[in-house]
């Protein structure tokens, strides 16, 4: 049947899915980000949180983050800070890439995120396309950045 996938195509798509968790306190930004990632990349958003406490609780609960490929974190949250999420995720050994998406991507903030184990920092105002490209490369098995490396 035209337009349908066979079992091996379904399996290949599942293997390339980028399991993603997002920490963002703005419902509008969260909805737009989820829509963009799921439409333009192989992202599969497995959950989200709007504050540090909820994010850390989910990320450190046994089994939740076991297969996580990408953690997207905003810095300024209604409760707590994305820096705390980043630090706890790194110390807990949460797998996958840890990236920061913020409106405050100053050189000092980028350096601080690097120190806390961010793989990349993206500016919400002008680097969302780069985040989408980064996510797509993860789905293709690319993005060899190491924590703190902040490389492409």
Describe this structure in words.
The protein is of the alpha/beta class. The chain contains six helices and five strands; from the N terminus they run H-E-H-E-H-E-H-E-H-E-H. The chain has helices spanning 7-16, 27-40, 52-60, 82-91, 107-115, 128-139, and strands at 18-23, 43-49, 70-73, 97-102, 120-123. The protein has a five-stranded parallel sheet, sandwiched between helices. The longest helix is centred in the first third of the chain and has 14 residues, at 27-40. The radius of gyration is 15 Å and the shape is globular. The chain starts with 6 loop residues before the first helix and ends in a 13-residue tail after the last helix.
Q: Top keywords for this entry?
A:
152 residues; Rossmann fold; 5 strands; alpha/beta; globular; five-stranded parallel beta sheet
List the helices and strands and how they pair.
Elements: H1 7-16, E1 18-23, H2 27-40, E2 43-49, H3 52-60, E3 70-73, H4 82-91, E4 97-102, H5 107-115, E5 120-123, H6 128-139
Parallel strand pairs: 1-2, 1-3, 3-4, 4-5
Describe, in short, the structure shown.
By secondary structure, the protein is α/β, with parallel strands linked by helices.
The profile of the biggest β sheet is: 5 strands, parallel
| SSE class | alpha/beta
Helices, by number, come to 6
The CATH architecture designation is 3-Layer(aba) Sandwich
How many beta-strand elements?
A: 5
CATH topology: Rossmann fold
- CATH superfamily, by name, is Response regulator
Percentage beta strand: 15-25%
What number of structural domains do the residues give?
Answer: 1
- CATH class value: Alpha Beta
Helix-strand sequence: HEHEHEHEHEH
| Proportion in helices | 40-55%
Given the C-alpha coordinates, what overall shape results?
globular
Average residue-wise pLDDT: 86
Q: Numbering strands along the chain, what is their spatial order in the largest sheet?
A: 2-1-3-4-5
Distance, first to last CA: 40 Å
The low-pLDDT segments are: 1-15, 148-152
């Amino acid at each position: 049947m035209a337009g349908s996938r066979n079992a091996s195509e379904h399996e290949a798509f599942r293997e390339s899915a980028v399991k993603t968790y997002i920490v963002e306190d703005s419902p509008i930004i969260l909805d737009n980000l989820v829509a963009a990632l799921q439409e333009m990349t192989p992202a599969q958003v497995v959950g989200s949180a709007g504050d540090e406490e909820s994010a850390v609780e989910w990320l450190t609960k046994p089994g939740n983050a076991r297969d996580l490929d990408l953690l997207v974190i905003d810095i300024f949250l209604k409760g707590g800070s994305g820096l705390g999420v980043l630090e706890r995720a790194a110390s807990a050994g949460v797998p996958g890439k840890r990236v920061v998406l913020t409106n405050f991507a100053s050189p000092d903030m980028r350096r601080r995120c690097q120190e806390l184990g961010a793989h990349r920092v993206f500016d919400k105002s002008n680097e969302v396309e780069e985040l989408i490209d980064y996510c797509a490369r993860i789905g293709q098995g690319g993005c060899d950045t190491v924590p703190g490396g902040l490389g492409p």
